[in-house]
Write a structure and sequence with these properties.
mainly alpha; two-stranded antiparallel sheet; 9 helices; 65% helix; 261 residues
């Protein structure tokens, strides 16, 4: 199972062109959904307005070399290591999900466009990474869903309480879970393979077609916001903000800084 390209089995019923067209449509849906989200929420306008204000209010000018250094640090800390999370468990779960999704998505593109049929033998590393990526998404995603969600872990609410903001993580978990089940059934020669494949396609459409209503597009906003924050700290404009709020303890009157997880 882990070394078999699951898209080989589709060649008997659909052409590689159909598979590739479907993937392209999903990419277009993500692009259009992100653009719609940016326009609807005025995210780009808000970002550029803040950027302009930060430049005017800055106490010093940030040069080009320093700007590149800040961009690299943003990519490493916030991008590669998810340093914005204070809670170590949330960071680990997020990293499992993020790197798993990257491996899963990239290997899907490679196998669909480069090795769509058995005429072009797939290197074993690609399906192995595809399955491993899906497993990593499931590990990080289910860990987050059942144990780390703030309203569940901190407020004692039932784990199956679903809100609008949960659309992205639920559709992602459904997609990767169904992908693994479909691949396993295909390797076992089960009659249920085609049914789970259709469910897998449906979950894919929901995942990539629901961008305007889910948090999918946030993965594009967060690096830009993190970079802007670093620039504001560097030029001194962020120092105009009030200090972090403090919250008194219930007993003893001691004060501590509130940490956001």
């Amino acid at each position: 199972m882990f070394t078999n390209n699951p898209f080989y089995g589709l060649a008997t019923s659909v052409t590689p062109g159909i598979m590739q067209t479907f993937v392209i449509v999903m990419i277009v849906l993500v692009a259009l959904g992100t653009l719609y989200d940016i326009n609807h929420k005025k995210s780009a306008r808000y970002f550029f307005d803040n950027w302009r204000n930060a430049r005017h209010q800055g106490k010093r000018r940030v040069g080009g070399g320093e700007m590149v250094s800040l961009a690299i640090r943003t990519a490493i800390v916030e991008g590669l290591t998810s340093g914005e999370f204070c809670n170590a468990r949330r960071r680990i779960a997020h990293l499992f999900t993020m790197y798993g999704f990257l491996a899963y998505a990239i290997t899907t593109l490679i196998m669909v466009f480069r090795y769509p049929t058995s005429d072009s033998p797939t290197p074993a590393i690609l399906p192995a990474l595809w399955h491993m990526g899906a497993l990593m998404v499931c590990l990080g995603g289910y860990w987050f869903w059942f144990f780390l969600r703030v309203d569940v872990a901190a407020e004692g609410k039932p784990p199956f309480r679903i809100m609008h903001a949960d659309l992205f993580i639920l559709s992602l978990l459904a997609n990767t879970t169904l992908a693994l089940v479909w691949s396993w059934l295909q390797a076992a020669g089960s009659a249920w393979t085609i049914m789970f494949f259709y469910w897998y396609l449906l979950s894919t459409v929901v995942l990539f077609g629901s961008v305007p209503w889910s948090k999918f597009s946030h993965m594009f906003y967060k690096p830009a916001a993190a970079f802007q924050k670093r620039v504001e700290n560097a030029n001194g404009s962020r120092s105009n903000l009030p200090a972090p709020a403090e919250k008194p303890e219930i007993f003893g009157g001691a004060r501590r800084t509130v940490r956001h997880y």
